[in-house]
Amino acid sequence: MSKVVILKHPLIDHKMSMIRDKNTGTKVFRETVSEVGALITYEITRDLETVPKQIETPICETTVYELAKQVVIVPILRAGLGMVEGIHDIIPSAKVGHVGVYRDEKKLVPHVYYQKFPPGLSDSVVLVVDPMLATGGSASKAIEIVKSYGATDIRYVGLVGCPEGVERLRKDHPDVAIYLAALDSHLNEMGYIVPGLGDCGDRLFGTK
Questions:
Q1: pLDDT tens digit string along 167-187?
Q2: C-alpha radius of gyration, the chain, whole number
Q3: Using CA atoms, how far apart are residues 97 and 114, in angstroms rounded to an integer?
Q4: pLDDT per residue as tens digits for the range 72-84
Q5: Which among 31, 134, 40, 124 has a CA at the least distance from the CA of 74?
Q6: The domain spanning residue 61 has which CATH number?
Q7: How far apart are CA 149 and CA 144, in angstroms?
Q8: 208 or 46, which is more confident?
């Protein structure tokens, strides 16, 4: 069954308090989501494998260590874009793919409208990024898509989840680790996480 990690850190908690606040404006919201993405990156990459490499420092030859696999960040459009910059700041060599998924607001089922990936997913560590793990449908579909391209080392990275979404992802993809900054109470009748932070995409881009 999937590993589920709820990241506990004072800075993450502090920044989560800012993005949960309905009075936080678009600029601060967007910047803070990116900052939380950067902080989360330290934890989600803790177990990445490295390989030795011989280099010369200005003083002498020595052995250093570099990542064994390419990292690919795959945000689920559009809200996932808000976390990409923060993760990329920590792993600037990472490549970025995209999955476009929208949710039918009545049936709460995902529909895919776009997918584009760099080559070599089968040999990469793939970070599927979406701030909100609500019903889990969009995340599950995105993971299904990257698996169809050969990806096997996949981690889901989000800000806020709920038991329903976590259970869906663990059921559909028991091999995928789940990393969240917070696990909230439940989904309401509209499919929003409670207490949550509202519609992350709208708050990131000022569309509501």
A1: 999 999 999 999 999 999 999
A2: 17
A3: 11
A4: 999 999 899 999 9
A5: 124
A6: 3.40.50.2020
A7: 9
A8: 46
Structural tokens at position 58: 């200005």
Residues paired with 101 in a beta bridge: 112
Domain range enclosing 187? 4-205
Contacts of 72 (CB under 8 A, 6+ apart): 94, 95, 96, 97, 117, 118, 120, 121, 124, 125, 126, 127, 151
Gap between the Cα atoms of 51 and 64, Å rounded? 8
Give the tens place of pLDDT for each residue, 19-68: 999 999 999 999 999 999 999 998 899 999 999 999 999 999 999 999 99
* Sequence-ordered list of residues with C-beta below 8 angstroms from that of 70, at least 6 positions apart, any chain: 93, 94, 95, 120, 123, 124, 125
The H-assigned helical ranges of the chain are 10-20, 26-44, 81-90, 137-148, 163-172, 200-205
What does the block give as tokens for 167? 């259970």
Closest of 130, 132, 128, 129 to residue 183, by C-alpha: 132
Give the number of domains in the chain: 1
Cβ–Cβ < 8 Å for 179, 155: yes
Per-residue DSSP letters for 65-94? Answer: EEESSEEEEEEEETTTHHHHHHHHHH-TT-
Report angle CA 167, 95, 15 to the nearest 5 degrees.
Answer: 55
